[in-house]
Amino acid sequence: MKKQIFLSDMFFKIILTLAVASVVGYFLYERLSVEQKGNTAAATAANADWQPQTTESNFKQQKQQQEALKNLDKAIKTSPQNSFAYLEKAALLMQAGKHKEALENYNKAISLDANNAGAYVNRAKASFMLGDFSGADKDLTRAIALNPQLAEAYYNRGVANLNMSKMQNAASDFARAQNLFARSKDKKNADDAAKAFRTVDDYIKSSKAAPATSQEQRQSLGKDPKKGATVKESPFLKGDTGTKYDTLKKQDDIFPSEQKSALLSELSSDNLKKRLEEFKANAYPKGVSGEAMPDFASSAAKIAQAVKEKQKQILPKTSIDYRVDAQDNMKKGDYKAAIESLDKAIALNPENADLYEERARANAATSNPQAAIADYTKALNINPKSGSALYNRAEQLSIMGDTKGALQDAASATQQFQADGNKQGELQAENLSNTLQGKLVKKEVTDTAAELLLKEGANAFASGDYNTAKEKFDALLKDYPRPELFYNRAITNAALGNTDAALKDYNAAINGNPNMVDAYIGAAGILTDQDKTEDARANLEKALNLSPDTPGPYKGLAAADIKDGNYENALKNIDKAIALDQQDPAPFFQRGMLYAQKEDLNKANSENISTYVDNYENALQDLTKSKQLAQIQGNIKLLNEITEMEKPLGDILKSLKDFKKQVGGQ
Predict the structure, then answer these.
(1) Residues with Cβ < 8 Å from 648, sequence gap 6 or more?
(2) Rounded CA gap, 517 and 502, in Å?
(3) Nearest CA-CA partner of 264 in 22, 91, 514
(4) Angstrom distances, CA of residue 549 to CA of 169, 485, 543
(5) pLDDT tens column, 182-212
(6) Are 424 and 169 in contact (CB under 8 A)?
(7) Which residues neighbour 177 within 8 Å (Cβ) at sequence distance 6 or greater?
(8) Alpha carbon distance 517, 556 (integer Å)
């Protein structure tokens, strides 16, 4: 039976949505979430700076913001291709705490001008305030690509990485920000960046010095920031960091000076009172008076809704609008609706690689790896240097049983992440390659308890400690009944000889993800061993329907043919497997053994001796090829099996040749 592989990273992502990746990420998230509450009593008690003001001056300021927004809407209507108007509107909405609406305007601005580094920095802040740290990280990386000297972008990406518990990445970003701030003689920000770097570096060192080793300690990392040996040593919990990491630095220089001056002049017109009256007359819904508003916030909400409804009637939805709809649906877990919205977005903007990647993720979440692979391929056709698309396509290919393709993509992803300076991505891609090959994977300080269990299980399996591997997967499946984990426990049970339990787990994996090709192949292998070749073939046909270019199903069909004594058909299926992957040593070994047992030695005679000689020569040639490939891959188990077979097969071939020589070689 072929060496099985683990399906891992998709599960990592699911775990990361359920538990905080590390103590520091948890702590900073708690601080940020309090500030985002704004008007609530909890926020008032926790942070007086965020207490909403009800003074007359504040009321006037809110009215001025509404007036300014109205003027910007007019400017946008007059010149819908003016990206700067969208950017300024987004900035005003951010001041008003309307982060989601600000994000929508940043999206529109960037769709009009995709080369404005400052716009990406500011959109990152909106994403950050909405809790989308990954989105913020992505935008800041784009900003840096456009302007590698943008110190604020490095600093803010460090903040985003902290909130995602990517400590090494955060330290690197803060160090780079410090250098750039220092070059521009911005002492205050340079000091902030230096302090941030020292704090993160201290945390990394203290975590390495006092790692959590017990199961209780590991589990505590994802639950309570005040438990665990590592936490007690964490400088983040001492309250003396001196830096407010949930506050992003601003990037103001997003306008050419002449355009910015003209726009700001329009916004600061002396005719504010007249415009305010016009605003009341035109924008307020019926029954709402600008002079008699007992609750401004309530009325403002009604106004915003009225304007939104009016815009729906006037303006057709753009690809950005559909993309925002899709992201909202994905957050809700409604992936079908997300796919429908992304279909519409792609129809309007078919050259946007990000849209294909997002639809691929939605397809993957609905257990449709075929559609996901197709979308990742389209994204890579547009942007061949997308490490995330390469990595995620590798993961989906592994689910489809295409280990060769998965390994190629994982290797390409590793190289791309390395070129991008993305250490976290590079490590994850290396780990995916290792799990596909059954090798040891690396652990990180920031791994959650669930991630540690998964890596420990994978490493135990790779080391041949199947009992420990099973313990780890048993523990994980209690809380996370994912198809990938059922598959991992299935191959572990199969290695232990627990065939009934393995078959049950394979079927559980298939029920959870009916597109998991390797689960069908694994189940078929057990059914073949149980002489249920008809059921095995049914599973293998399903695997072939899902992935006709994968060698695994053909190897399984060959095994069923051998069980039924149909060696001719078995050879045809093995030939198909070899044609699809000529670097896999297993089918060469299997074909060699088929040639060796194709004919009954007791029936050899002077008339058919040449056929026997040809078969055994073919057998030894295939074993030699299999041995070469196994040596390259370091497959010790297969090498031992080949070594055991070479001498007896060689002895038989020598005897056959001697006999042929004696009888004259018919």
Answers:
(1) none
(2) 16
(3) 91
(4) 39, 25, 10
(5) 887 888 888 888 888 887 777 776 665 443 3
(6) yes
(7) 151, 152, 154, 155, 158, 189, 193
(8) 12
